[in-house]
Fold:
Amino acid sequence: MGFPKNFLWGGATAANQLEGGIFEGGRGLANVDVCPAGKDRSAVIAGHKKMLEMDESHSYPAAEAVDFYHHFREDIQLFAEMGFKVYRLSIAWTRIFPNGNEKEPNEEGLRFYEDIFKECRKYQIEPLVTISHFDCPIYLIQKYGGWKSREMIRFYLHLCQVLFTRYRDYVTRWLTFNEINMILHAPFMGAGIYFEEGEAKEQVKYQAAHHELVASALAVKMAHEINPKNKVGCMFAAGSAYPYTCRPEDVWEALLTDQENYFFVDVQARGYYPSYAVKRLQKNGVFPAVEPGDADILRANTVDFISFSYYNSRCIAAPGGEQEEAEGNLFRSARNPYLKYSEWGWPIDPTGLRITLNQVYDRYQKPLFIVENGLGALDEPDENGYVQDDYRIGYLREHIRAMKEAVEEDGVELMGYTSWAPVDLISASTGEMKKRYGFIYVDKQEDGSGTLKRTRKKSFYWYQRVIETNGEEL
Ligand code: BG6
Structure:
């Protein structure tokens, strides 16, 4: 009973929120670099405000982030001290191809990740690599409009080919796109898409989604061809939609919300556009342009496993209601009165994780991997930099317990769990530093000051014990 012996415990990060060093090592500029912190961020990440360069009037905390670029050995050593079996990280596309369309990759960027993989190997930590965690080179946005263009498939696959070949001896687990469904909610941050005046937004988003889905399927094919040991997963932002009441209209609306999310995984895991999507996209006149051969590509190259982030469930009411709204991982929904909320207004719902695990497993019958889950909170270190983060331990304990029930009692096949994020980093939705998730505190403050010193929090020792006992001691 309990978790399988080879259960993959670890943590997850993204290059653009962690590394910093955006002007080092020959790296080019990406969409994720030009999303400022502060009041314009939400309009920029949603593609409503066009911003393709950094300017003086905004701040960009992710430019330095927590400087993993120069601290990765120290950080990986700390992950090893916690007993990590797996470390999920992403590749900054523009470290490998600064503009995105070069013929030859940038050796300095390739070496950087190779050094990270070597460091992981030293401690028998297996890397799980997200090929694109929201990144899109600015040059490709300027020239092609990001994932609006089918040309992107070619550039993305070139990146894949370089990564699969160069890291053949280091990496066998890959994720094609982080939170692929985010393209609908944060199209600029997720896919380099901004909208021109009068552009049909839904059409653009589903066209771009189609390009990513084809690219993802072709990446699966390529990964298997280059190394038959490669296992490739999809990744989506999960969190079941609860009906606000048992009124059939609310139940229906919740079902529609779930379908909007599952659409991506339906294609990636089953290999074809689900009938509800075909009907609705056609009815709304936004069915994407598809090329001959696309259907075969999707069908023949489904993913080996399904991964997702889980922060919260959502609560959905039929349009026209007057219910209060709540935040939550870039999706707003109705406020669920039965739940507690984080300092950033995200619902906290461990049982929702068990529900989501069951729903996703029932739907696809493929191995699952929770690749993000955690609590963003304000931490207050004492004079030695130590943070007593019982609130974070409480959150994680309850979620791991729910996941254990899903495995032990419901028979869900779960490969592993990587919490977001083992070390403090920049928030994706707000660009803030003060929204911290880590087991490791980094002395980097909201105003950019700080020594970047790393200090173990109370949760560090707690998670270490969780891993040591394979989830028996929570
Ligand atoms: C997920 C993303 O949406 O949630 C991460 O994959 C992100 O990049 C995480 O950091 C937590 O969200 P936030 O906005 O609190 O950083």
The chain has one domain: 8-468.
